[in-house]
Predict the structure.
Amino acid sequence: MINTPLSPTTAALLADALLALHVGVVLFVVGLLPLVLLGGALGWRWVRHRGLRLTHLGLMVFIVVQTWLGQLCPLTVWEQNLRQMAGQGSYRESFIEHWLSRLLYWDAPWWVFVAGYTGFAALVGVGWWWVRPGSIRSGKPTKTTAVSRIKKVDL
């Protein structure tokens, strides 16, 4: 295997692509929870897809464990390494990097991220209980559904 360094242009393009992927992952993790809760109440079958829900739960557990261990997300580390390879400083950024990084990266004490990610992971766990995924064999929801829980509360 030949180890050839990336050109600065290629490294910058890969960093932008990685940043866009990172934003997509964040949108998936954050956006799926309200859709699952809403879809459970409205009877949307796709929100009970076990593979989708396991992927969501797995990502959230990974994020929380990394945060508790004081580690940055690997996507952040890889993007930063690519930006260094591209020779990009803090003032030299592409359009994609400029806008997506402001959406994704926040300047706050570490404990804020630990608390926020942990709280969100707890909500994902509640979502798992509230809108249970279907069984692997049948794809049907488990016996207790979000709608039946609402009815029980209303009684």
